[in-house]
Design brief:
single chain, 266 residues, alpha+beta, Creatine Amidinohydrolase, 3-stranded antiparallel sheet, 6 helices, 10 strands, globular, binds glycine, binds manganese (II) ion
Length: 266
């Protein structure tokens, strides 16, 4: 399976470092969600997250931190600006640290205030359901393409259920989900491992492979992406970034706590 590229199957030492990078980064995302004040700027949010990463031992980010508030969440690689994230908006944070040279890559999307609006929540839950069902599908033998096709089916079904996409408009999913579901993770955030075997077929997952699952929807001014780091095991997978909250109730609880903290310190 080595075609002169980096192997997507990581050894025990590499896995230990990937696990550590993902744990540090997931904890930093969690702390950010609990603490980022409503009205913070994108740059302020990025700086706070990177501070939490440094406190855990990650002196470097795996890639430039992405923070998009409001309609800027629609920009896939939004560079943080002085724009403030205000109540009623979503904030998309895509950030990861490094441990021993190995990368994490995590995205969470949360309300700047303490609750999702009805429409934000519906869109978020469509993405979350697709992401969790892709995670449940991971096991040796499955391909990243299978996961991507499953995510597209789930996103389509979710959009159709809301009548946000009509029958016959399946091709329009590309407008709302313009990127892939997965990439390999290693010393580089997009680790340049093979995608296919010598016969040109998509690689089948094997224990020890590490990659992301990151569905998103970018729809009518709202941007939602949820990204976790996944290690394939003998029977399924381990979600290396599970310390970062993503269930609606947990996220809202964190944001309500952040609001209480910031009103106390005023
Ligand atoms: N942070 C870049 C990506 O998610 O692929
Ligand atoms: Mn990624
Ligand atoms: Mn990412």
């Amino acid at each position: 399976m080595d075609h002169g590229l980096i192997s997507p199957v990581k050894n025990a030492q590499e896995i230990a470092l990937l696990r550590e990078a993902a744990r540090w980064s997931a904890e930093a995302h969690r702390e950010l969600m609990w603490q980022a004040p409503q009205g913070a700027t994108e740059k302020g949010i990025a700086a706070q997250l990177e501070g939490f990463l440094r406190q855990r031992g990650s002196s470097d980010t795996a890639y430039p931190t992405i923070v998009g508030a409001g309609e800027r969440a629609l920009i896939l690689h939004a560079e943080p600006t002085e724009r403030r994230a205000v109540d009623g908006e979503l904030v998309l944070v895509d950030a990861g640290g490094k441990a021993g040279g190995y990368c994490a890559d995590i995205t969470r999307t949360w309300p700047a205030g303490d609750r999702f609006s009805d429409k934000q929540r519906i869109l978020y839950e469509v993405v979350l359901r697709a992401q969790k069902s892709a995670i449940r599908a991971v096991r040796p033998g499955v391909t990243l393409l299978d996961l991507h096709e499953g995510v597209k089916r789930d996103l389509l079904e979710g959009l159709r259920r809301q009548n946000w996409l009509k029958r016959g408009e399946e091709d329009r999913l590309r407008e709302f989900y313009p990127h892939k579901t997965s990439h390999w993770l290693g010393r580089l955030v997009h680790d340049p491992c093979a995608q296919t075997n010598a016969a040109g077929e998509p690689l089948r997952l094997e224990p020890g492979m590490v990659f992301t699952i990151e569905p998103g929807l970018y729809f009518e001014g709202l941007g939602v992406r949820i990204e976790d780091d996944i290690l394939v095991t003998d029977t399924g997978c381990e979600v290396l970034s599970s310390a970062a909250p993503k269930e609606v109730e947990e996220v809202q609880e964190a944001r309500a706590a952040a609001r209480r903290r910031s009103s106390k310190s005023r």
